[in-house]
Specification:
Layout lengths: L1 E2 L10 H18 L2 E7 L3 E7 L5 H20 L18 H17 L14 H4 L13 H5 L5 H13 L3 H12 L2 H18 L4 H7 L3 H4 L6 H14 L4 H8 L3 H14 L3
Antiparallel strand pairs: 1-3, 2-3
Helix pairs in contact: 1-2, 3-7, 3-9, 11-13, 12-13
């Protein structure tokens, strides 16, 4: 992903959006990149790609450089269009791919631009799940890997149902447990995902896809020392806001913040 310099818009109108996509398609062919998913927001974009030739940096440099030149020329601007080098995260397993898909597809919903991801015109969700024609540049063969044994149409339906879930990644893990050793599933969660959540490295929208309901984490009658730990977990591991936790515990936001700081101090943070 990348965003505009000083968080300025990188898409000022429909022509900018179409030009970015056209450039991505052109450079995709040049560098042999596969585009799995993408979303154009206002001042940033997200994309999930595979690079069989190991040339992600070259692809992104050419994509962003060419688009920036076209953008500045068209609007009469000078200077940097993007804030710096693109941000990249290596997807290491199917569960991580589902997390990335949630972040990509649900970004317009999180931003309150639409109520459902399929309603957002400048993303690939509708085409991916079969609700719109699939453009030639979009690869969706990965769906068959995500849902082994399913036909493409069935895999599209299952992804659509998954994205309708309040916690899509948890739902996907439940599906895995039906045909995969549950020990392996627990290892995935406890190693990569668990570590990332604990360290607070995932964006909040990633964490919200995985998180437990707030009522499962804390309740008004909890003892103070247990409550402080629950507040910490709700904030760090599951991405809930102080205001949300305060409402659940029937406390003031100041009291929640105090308990959170106290627990952080006990952990040496």
């Amino acid at each position: 992903m990348n965003r505009g310099n000083r968080k300025a818009p990188i898409f000022e109108d429909v022509q900018d959006r179409r030009r970015f996509l056209a450039t991505a398609i052109q450079e995709k062919e040049t560098y042999g990149v596969e585009i799995l998913a993408g979303t154009e927001m206002g001042n940033h974009f997200h994309a999930i790609v595979t690079t069989p030739n190991g040339n992600l940096s070259e692809f992104m440099q050419q994509l962003e450089g060419q688009f920036a030149r076209d953008f500045n020329r068209r609007h009469g601007y000078v200077g940097h269009v993007f804030q710096g080098r693109f941000g990249g995260v290596l997807i290491e397993n199917d569960v991580h791919l589902v997390i990335a898909l949630c972040y990509n597809f649900l970004n317009p919903v999180s931003a309150r631009l639409v109520e459902r991801p399929e309603d957002y015109k400048w993303g690939t969700y509708a085409a991916t799940v079969g609700l719109a024609p699939r453009p030639d540049y979009l690869s969706i063969g990965w769906l068959l890997k995500l849902f082994p044994g399913a036909s493409l149409k069935e895999a599209q339906r299952r992804l659509r149902l998954l994205m309708d879930e309040p916690r899509p990644v948890t739902a996907y893990l439940r599906q895995l447990e039906e045909g995969v050793d549950p020990v392996w599933v627990r290892q995935v969660v406890q190693s990569y995902i668990g570590e990332q959540l604990q360290m607070g490295m995932l964006p909040r929208v990633y964490r919200s896809a995985l998180r437990l309901a707030l009522s499962e984490l804390c309740s008004p009658g909890m003892p103070a020392h247990i409550r402080a730990k629950a507040i910490y977990r709700a904030r760090v591991e599951h991405g809930y806001t102080v205001a949300e936790i305060a409402r659940e515990l029937r406390l003031s936001p100041a009291a929640v913040s105090k308990a959170y700081r106290s627990h952080c101090k006990s952990l040496g943070k």
